[in-house]
Every structure is written in C-alpha cells, then in structure tokens.
Amino acid sequence: MRGRNIILAAVIAALVGGLLIWRGGSLDRLSIDFLHLVHARLWGPPPISRDIAIVAVDEATYRDPYFHELPQALWTPHMGAILDRVLEADPKVVGIDIIIGTTADSIAPGYDLPWLRALRRGADENKVVLGFTQHQTKPIIPTAQQRSAVRANIDGRNEHPVNLPPDPDGIARAYPLKFLNVTGKSVASFGAELANRAGTPATGDAVFLNFASAPRPQIHSMADLRACAEAGEASYFEQHFAGKIVLFGGVLDIEDRRLTSGRFATLPEGQNLAAPCRVPTQPEDFSGVARYDMPGILVHAAAIENLLGGSGLHVPGEAQRAALLILLSILAAMAFLALRPGRAVAVWLVLAIAWSALSVALFTTYWALPWLTGLAALILAGPAGIALRLTVMDRARRQLRNAFSLYLPKSEVDRLVREEKLPALGGELREITILFSDIAAYSTLSERVAPGPLVDDLNRYFSRMTEIVQAHGGFVDKFLGDGILAIFGAPLSRENHALDAVAASLAMIESLKAEPLFIGGKGRIAIRIGLHSGEAIVGNIGSPQRFNYTVMGDAVNVASRLEGVGKHYGIPIVVSEQVREKVGDACRFRELDFIRVIGRDQPVRLYQPLTAADAAEIDFPAFSAALQLWRRGDFAAAAKAFAVLAESGDDLAARYVGWAKTYAATPMSDWEGIIQQGSK
Q1: 10 Å Cβ neighbour count for 405?
Q2: Which of 244, 361, 463, 629 holds its CA 20 to 30 A away from the CA of 153?
Q3: What positions does the domain Guanylate cyclase occupy (predicted)?
C-alpha cells in the first residue's frame, strides 16, 4: 500500500507541480510582494541610510517663491547653486534623475550657466551621472548643453538610462543593471553606474529589489537646500552629503511614481525627512499616508543600497523551483493518501506553516522562495489527494467495511482495510477451517413456540455465538435456519485458523453450560459442531449486481457432515484429522472413528477436542486399545474393553459397547475398520 501511495502521490505532484511550473510565475512574483509585507510587520522598517541622500523636488519646492509657477527649465540657476555646494561637500557621486529637455538660452543667453558649470565640475571630478530615458528608438534626454557639460556627447559615460521596466503585472521587482542603447551597445543603468562609481561594481543583468533590507535615504527639499546654499551653510552640506551618493529627483504625489514589490510595506510619506537647514517642513508638504506606489528616485536608491550591501534578493533557479514545488506536492498528497482525514489536515497545516516559516526566515537572508506558489502546491495537491482517496481508495475501503462490518469485529475489519484485501468477484482458493453448528433437537424445541418469541430466542443465541466466533478471529458467513456457518482464515489470512476454530467451538459449548439459553423459555439449547480444514473457494460469489462473501467447496460439505456425525457419537464437537494435525499439541484430542461421510469417497478420521477438565476424566490408553480392537474387527473383545470404560462414566465408550455387540452378533466379511455415515 505504501508503494502505491508513493506512486499516486508522484502522479499528483507531477500534475500539480507541472501546472505551477508552467503557470505559476505570477504567484512567484506576488510571493516577493507579500514577503516584503510580512517582513515589515515582523521586523519593522529598515534604518535610515548612511550612504545615500536625496535632493528632492517636493511640494515645498513648488510652493517656494524661487520655484513657484516656473517651468523646470528656469530652475537651473538654483539647481546649479545646490549642485555646487553638494560637490564642495565631497560626495562619492551625484546622480541627476531630473531630465530638463528645454533651455531658456535662446531668450536669456547664459541663463543655464550656473547649472552647466556645476555639471562640468562634477564631470571633471568623475562625480556626476546624468539620467535619460531610453524610449523606444528616440530617447528622452537632457539638452545638448547639459550633455556637453558632462561630456556625454563625446563618450556617453556620464549619461545613463533611468528606465524602470516593470514585470508583466506592472510591478517593478527587478532593477536592470544594463541596457542596449539605440546603437546596440551595452550601457550600465543609472543605479549600476552610481554603484560602480561608489566602488561596488555591479555584475549581472539585474538585481531583484529588496526594500526590506535597503536603508531609507534621507530626503532634503530642494527649496530648503536653495536657501541653505544661498546662506552659505557649507557645514550643513558637509554634514549631510560628504562621502554619500546623492540623488536629485522628484518625490511628488503625482509624478514619476512606481508600483514595486515593496508596495504592501510602504511607510507613510514624510518619515524620511532630514532636519531642514533653512525652510521648515510644513504639514502639507507630504500626505502622511502610506501609498502603494513610490517615487522612482526611491526605487533607484533601494537598488543602489542592494548593490552596495549585497542585499539584492536571490530567487531559486528553474530546477530548484521545480524541485521545491514537486516536493511540496508529494508531501501534501502523501498526507491525504496515507493518513486519516483529521491527521492529514493536521500534517497539511504543519507543512503550510513550516513552508511559510521557512520562506519568511530565508527572506531575511535575501532569498525569495516561491512562497505563495508553494502554498498553491499544497492547496492543490491536498484536495487532489482527497479526491483520489474518496473516488478510488476509500471507495474500496468502504466496500470492505460494508461487506464485513456486520460479520467481523471492528479490529478485524480495520485490519482488513489496512491490508486492502478486497475479495474479487469469483473468489480465491484458500486453505481455511470451516465451523458448522446446529441446535440439537431444534424441531422438537421450536414446534410449540410462536414465531415472534422463537425469532427473539434465536437472535439471542446467534448474537452470543457470533460474538464468540468473532472474538476468536472467525467470520460468520451465514445462518442456515438454526445453523451457523463460520469461516476461520478468511477474509483475513490467519496462520492458526484451525486452533482458532477449535477454541471458538469449545468456548461456544462452555458458554451454553455456564449461561444456558432456552427456546420458548423451557427447551434448553444444546448444540453440535463440526470442524474441517481444507481448501475452499472464498470470495464474492454472485453477480456484479448482487453478491455475497461466502465459501464453497468440498470442505464445507465435510464440515456439515461432521456436525451431523456428532449426534451419533453423543458428543458436541467433531473435528477431522486435518484439523487435528494443524492444531497439534495445542489442544487435547480423543480419536473417535474412521468414517466415510455422505457424499465423499475418501474416509475421514474423526477426533473429539477436549477441555483440560474433560481430558482429565478420560483413560486415553485404555480407550485407544479398545478402539484398536474395534478396528481389527474383534468386536467381542472390543465390547468388553469399552464396557470397562463405560463403567467409569464414559458415555462414548458406552455407545461403542452397543455397536460392538451388534457387530459381534452379525459378523461382516468385508469389514475394513471404516464406518459409512448413516450405518449406525
């Protein structure tokens, strides 16, 4: 059964795992998002960054009189002043994610010079990177003057793309480290170039964003820094920008915002604000609400932090992912195939909790397992196991229970179900022991009893006898009038089926002695039992529409004949020599006779099983000697020998006295020591 369960679980795992390997990419992506959420709930937000600072175009900038109602093309003098002060503070590198694509130079010559001079200074110090957007075949780029100032028009090395391509669901989870420009040349991305300039070379094609382990950059309002630069507060710039990567970009409510894998774990806006230099932060500058999307400049900052700290997420390769999903599917399927429903659900919950705990724990080490895809594997494989169990496995088990629950004790039915030995239509040839019992003088006892009370009395008798048979591992096949046909050794194989049958027979007799049962309240029930061991056909006999588990064969005929023989010998239990041989010395027997039963050519040697108390009252050597005289045909001597035994109260010996005297008076020339049933 275990091997079959493994095969079935493997089939389920192949189907479920194959489906999720093929179509589970969206769940993989969503897993990263929810792992960010769980990490934030358990461990809180990351700390403030010591490596990155942001010069932000924010709501305060647009309200500032120096920027208010002016297009960005006219901000360049103020931006130049800020960039100069930042460069004086000696940052590692400055990234400009503000693309100014127009200039006022045509109407105000020299208007952009402060900005252009600051850019040239940064380029000369190898500390400025201009951003542009790679948009199909025509990029969105800064003005030619700005590109010339950073010498981008010469070798392009100070100009890098700021594109943030999303996944198919519109969420940015991976940050590209390189792009192909319009000429087909590989160009480092904006964040990759800044990390390179900061001393951490970026390798590979992309880094999976890990917002949970990316320290949060402090945000400085451009309006505040303009006032700070104008006031000559050099110490403020040194304190906040020295040795850092400085990013110029927007943090507005409606411009350049991106949905990312950290969208479920964002903080209320305005929490990363640096202490102002000159212009205090106003409540209306930031909404104070956590939003799913975030400014693009913060995505660049997180990517750079991941590159600097080596905290970018790792995801399993295709082979690893497939192995994980198939393993989870196998475990879930096995639980529901091999265990009872309650235990299976408990194991399933343990698997789901363990997988979730592993996914969350490994996320802290920068591994993003396909958490939700794995849960989907458990959810799909579990019901698949249940469905297979209900439609295939448990159906067979229910058939077994329905077939035998009324005839076998619960422990035996449970064992039968565990071994899953469902008898097939047509049966099988098996060696068993058959018990046939009858109520002595039943016709006489029942003839004056009304049907209702008679059935009640029989039911009480059958109930007690059935309990005894089942207690000894037997199976009551059927009730035949007042008779009982029971089987030992089927449907479950039992090594000692003959001994079980003998023990059950003795227990049935002793039960009626200890607690008598009556027919009609007066006629005491006494029974006769015949036992025979041999091969018989056992199984579901009948048609597919209607069948019964029963037994057929010569062994049944012999057992029924032996029950009838007991009447002639005046003893309650008669067993065949086959039963005697199988029981061995586990029980004491007395040999009765050698008889050819009706319907059978081969004679059968008969024995009487005895309790220890009954055996103590019998002179076995003397009885055996008398029986040998009987066999040799010396009936006169046999009569004398049996007579001595009869005087001590041996009823069977007394019967032999009468038979021996009769045979002595009418000698038989063809005597072989074999009695033909019905001849006595």
Answers
A1: 14
A2: 244
A3: 433-563
